[in-house]
Amino acid sequence: MIDIKAIKSELEMVSDLEQLDAFFQKYLGKKWSITEGFKQMGSASPEERKALGQKLTEAKDQVTEAYEAKEMELSREKINQLLNADLVDISLDTQPLDQGSYSVLAKVRREIEEVYKSLGFIIDYGHEIVTKYENFESVNIPLTHPATEMHDTIYLNDLDPKGLPLILRTHNSAHQVQDMMKYGVPLKLGSPGRVYRFESMDASHDVMFRYAEGIVIDKNLSIANFKDTMQKILSWILGKKTEIRMRPGYFPFVEPGFEIDAACPICDGKGCNLCKNVWRIELLGAGMVHPEVIKNAGLDPAEWSGFAWGIGVSRLAAIRYGIKDIRYFTNGDLRFSKSFA
Ligand code: FA5
User: Fold this and answer.
1) pTM
2) Which residues does the chain have with pLDDT short of 70?
3) How is domain 104-338 classified at the architecture level of CATH?
4) Which residue, 259, 249, 251, 250, is CA-closest to 293?
5) What are the pocket residues of ligand 1 if the criterion is a CB atom closer than 6 Å to any ligand atom?
């Protein structure tokens, strides 16, 4: 007769899936005695067959149930073993990763943005590809001005809707009028970004350099407001120690115009390539916004006034960190970049 108790205790001794498989072959597979028992039923009388059939079915059900429970238990154990073997110990130190960092120019640009924002300015980067109208005429530079010629401006093959060639902006003043119209007045807006000029490169000139425009439009603005704003921005970024000089300058989009120079950090008056031996480095152009520019934005210059400036960020960074040549910023020398990481 089938001894279910003995079979179950044999199952209890099974400790892995391989043994369980052997158990299955022995008791539940085709060769098992229960199966054999079913086969023998053919030779039994109808009464015996019924009783035997019932017993065999019960036995099979009980062994199958116990087998399935054991299979579940062993499978779980196996999964846990595999998971534990694969466990990543996050408390262990990993290999140090080569992390990137902001370039010097990005750091200085971000600082300028911070100062602008702290003074309540909107930031708008504008576009690097602009029309000739935006770059020149909107800011009162006639298309006959020498700056529009190839030697200063980089032209693209693509045309604007008027059929004129598109250009790479030479300054972010290209967005002054557009921004006045876009944001309305009064306005305080900062526009940092890359600008492009077709010119010979040297320690203080590059064909692509970082620039940061600023413009304020309001009623009754004066040169005193302009000076105060410039002093705040420059002393924040350069510190109070860097000597600054303001002198008259000419730009067709301002009246009066100014240029601000900073003392050369490299030669201390002895002369070097960065300042071309004149001790001072031109840092920015600026002035009171020209009435024609205000008119181009659809505003009445009798009511609205403004001041604007354009900082050479590459030069500002060179002055701030005492770098001899602005081309270091873009020549890809990792030793230079890493020294600022
Ligand atoms: C302008 O571009 C005017 N748009 C600035 C302005 C804005 C005036 C608003 C009035 C009102 P400028 O061409 O001087 O000005 O250029 C601005 C600054 O960019 C310069 O003072 C200088 O610091 C820097 N700069 C000029 N050319 C280069 C160059 N090739 N490489 C690096 N920096 C340059």
Assistant:
1) 0.74
2) 1, 31-36, 269
3) 2-Layer Sandwich (3.30)
4) 251
5) 171, 173, 197, 199, 205-206, 209, 211, 213, 251, 253-254, 257, 282-287, 308-310, 312, 314-315, 326
